[in-house]
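Pilot study result, target chain (144 residues):
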Amino acid sequence: MFGSKKTETVTTTPTKTTSSNGTSSALNSIVHGTKIDGKIHCEHDVRIDGTLKGSLTCDSKVIIGPTGLVDGDIECENAVIEGHFTGILTVRDSLQVKESANIKGDINTDKLVVHSGAVFNVSCLMKNEMITEKSSNGIYQEVE
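Predicted structure:
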């Protein structure tokens, strides 16, 4: 009825693909027009073309597409940013910032590529073997 709130739970199954060398991979996708508010954990690659407000922990690669908008924390192995990101981004290996990207916040990564034209307003920490933990105020700090 009018004025009532309805909560919907969405379960997604990663799309499986097979590459030319016979290995299979899975891709989770948050498509344009989808808005998620909360925590996500995934083992496989994830592509965000919609909106995420919250946190994402990924054991693999995160791609924020040109229409993607993320406001929160991301922790992943590799990342490619083409859209908008605001928050704390921890990338254990390689971060690529494409020319259409707009990033604000704190970045922790091992390798970084920023393409000409990208908006990159961040505090950046680069280390080969970064060990961090999230403090009570939400900022990742180096662990000794």
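One observation from the pilot: The mean pLDDT is 83. A full batch analysis is planned for the follow-on phase.
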